[in-house]
Amino acid sequence: MSEASKRIISHMNDDHQLALIDYLVIYGEQELYTFKQSSVKLTDVNEKSFTLNYETISNESKKITIHWADASEAEVLKVNSLKDVKDKLISMAKYAAAKQGYSHKRLTKVLPPNNLFALSLYILIPVLITNHFKPKLIPSYLGKDLLYLQIVKYIPAIISKNQSFILYVIAFLHVLETLFFTIPRLVQFRAPFKQSVAWIIMGLFEGFGSLIRMNAVTSD
Q1: Within-domain flag for 191
Q2: Is 83 helix (H, G, I), strand (E, B) or coil?
Q3: Is residue 110 part of a domain?
Q4: To 10 degrees, the CA torsion angle through 202, 103, 55, 10?
């Protein structure tokens, strides 16, 4: 095996296992639930084909060879040498992911709020919830605090008297945004569970603010 082949194999196994899984599903015609996703490895690559080894859910070791000439993708690229393999694999990854309704990228990063308005929502919403269910709780603890009294003094009466309504509106909008925008994006980019939970929580607090950051992460 050439050094170029070894470099390709190492790079794909270390950094692009999601693409290998998609190759196996689309080009190898294997259903996702029939094999262990973490077992999929690129074991050989040359000017004619590449080989994937994997393990079924019944612990059976298998391998499949996919020929470049048979691997359809949007750009219809040809592989004449190992120098052509990178572009071919990238195009195949995009094609295979799209065939399943996904992006070829995986969302693994969580970008926390990075501006004062977004951060303030993590204070405002718990305060609104507390005032809705226990309206005397915060004044009982902070009623004599000078800073608290100064803040309360500058809150317009229309806001202080309609806190429950404001809470309902924010909750309604943010739940809708999370259901119809955040969660579909998480599915499209196949975010792992922990990252998904973090983005959903931020979506419920911030609404579209978290989506703007998510778009920035996925567009990198």
Answers
A1: yes
A2: helix
A3: no
A4: -100
| 74, 75, 81, 84: CA torsion to nearest 10 | -100
The CA distance from 14 to 49, in Å, is 20
Q: Is residue 105 included in any domain, yes or no?
A: no
Block residue for tokens 């983005």: 199
- Shared domain check, 146 and 93: no
Amino acid type, 106: R
pTM of the model: 0.85
Instruction: Tell me the pLDDT tens digit for each residue of 60-100.
Output: 999 999 999 999 999 999 999 999 999 999 999 999 999 99
71, 99, 127 — which closes off a domain?
99
Same domain, 87 and 12: yes
The number of folded domains in the chain is 2
Selection from 91, 103, 83 nearest residue 27 by Cα: 91
Asked if 31 contacts 105 with a C-beta cutoff of 8 angstroms, the reply is: no
